[in-house]
């Protein structure tokens, strides 16, 4: 912008809105240096992304392999437990074959089978004379009784069993009620 003062023309630096500031020759070298630094940082970031993606894929594959291995080991463990139980039951089967020939041998077979089942953690649930417990007993019917306290198991229709303290079959029972 030119301004006239007392007859003299003076020039003041002008700056127009919307135009880029003027650059000096040294500025171009600085900008090129900044571009090189940004390009280097971008290349480093891309390398890091590629490395982390590769690590993620490897970790996923390792997890999949671990899950499959655990499933195979669980299956093998189940098969081993079944084999062990069957091996223990084979003598009982032999005794049943022998007992079929001799009726009096049935008590021996029953005792032998119960012994094997007990060693595996099976235990009968006591019911008759006990207070009815819905966590151990299944009530089939209520029976009127003057002799037994209300809610007491008067008869066991089918014995219940627990395996390692977990009920696997509830005792089917008749429960007393007052007349």
Please render the helix and strand layout as text:
Elements (H helix, E strand, L loop, with lengths): L1 E4 L2 E4 L13 H77 L4 H14 L2 E4 L11 E8 L8 E6 L1 E4 L2 E4 L1 E7 L2
Parallel strand pairs: 4-8
Antiparallel strand pairs: 1-2, 3-6, 5-8, 6-7
Question: How would you describe the overall organization of this protein?
Answer:
The protein is an alpha+beta fold and 179 residues long. The protein has 2 domains: 89 residues, Hemagglutinin Ectodomain, Chain B; 58 residues, Head domain of nucleotide exchange factor GrpE (Nucleotide Exchange Factor Grpe, Chain A, domain 2). The protein has 2 helices and 8 strands. The strands form 3 sheets. The protein has a 3-stranded antiparallel sheet with strand order 3-6-7. Helix 1 runs antiparallel to helix 2. The longest helix is centred in the middle third of the chain and has 77 residues. It is elongated and about 110 Å long. The termini are far apart.
Notable characteristics:
three-stranded mixed beta sheet; 179 residues; three-stranded antiparallel beta sheet; stress response; Nucleotide Exchange Factor Grpe, Chain A, domain 2; chaperone; alpha+beta; Hemagglutinin Ectodomain, Chain B; 2 domains
Quick recap of the structure?
One of its GO terms (cellular component) is cytoplasm. The chain has 2 helices and 8 strands; from the N terminus they run ββααββββββ.
**Order of neighbouring strands in the sheet with most strands:** 3-6-7
The CA-CA distance between the termini, in Å, is 118 Å
Rg from C-alpha positions? 45 Å
The proportion of residues in beta strands is 15-25%
Number of E-type strands: 8
Order of helices and strands: EEHHEEEEEE
CATH top level of the largest domain? Answer: Alpha Beta
Number of domains: 2
Binned, the helix content reads 40-55%
Question: Helix tally?
Answer: 2
Spans where pLDDT lies below 50 across 5 or more residues: none
CATH architecture assignment name of the largest domain: Alpha-Beta Complex
Mean pLDDT: 83
CATH topology (fold) name of the largest domain: Hemagglutinin Ectodomain, Chain B
The biggest beta sheet is recorded as: 3 strands, antiparallel
Principal-axes geometry comes out as: elongated
Q: By helix and strand content, what is the structural category?
A: alpha+beta
């Amino acid at each position: 912008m030119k301004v006239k003062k007392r007859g003299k023309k003076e020039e003041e630096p002008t700056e127009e809105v919307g135009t880029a500031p003027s650059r000096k020759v040294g500025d171009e070298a600085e900008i090129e240096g900044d571009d090189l630094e940004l390009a280097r940082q971008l290349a480093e970031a891309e390398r890091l992304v590629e490395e982390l993606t590769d690590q993620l894929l490897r970790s996923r594959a390792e997890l999949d392999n671990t899950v499959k291995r655990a499933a195979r080991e669980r299956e093998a463990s189940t098969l081993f437990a079944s084999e062990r139980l069957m091996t223990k039951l084979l003598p009982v089967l032999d005794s049943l074959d022998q007992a079929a020939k001799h009726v009096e041998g049935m008590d021996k077979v029953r005792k032998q089978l119960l012994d094997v089942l007990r060693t595996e953690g099976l235990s009968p649930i006591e019911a008759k004379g006990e207070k009815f417990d819905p966590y151990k007993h299944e009530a089939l019917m209520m029976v009127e009784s003057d002799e037994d306290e209300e809610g007491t198991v008067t008869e066991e229709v089918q014995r219940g069993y627990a395996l390692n303290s977990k009920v696997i079959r509830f005792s089917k029972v008749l429960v007393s009620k007052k007349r």
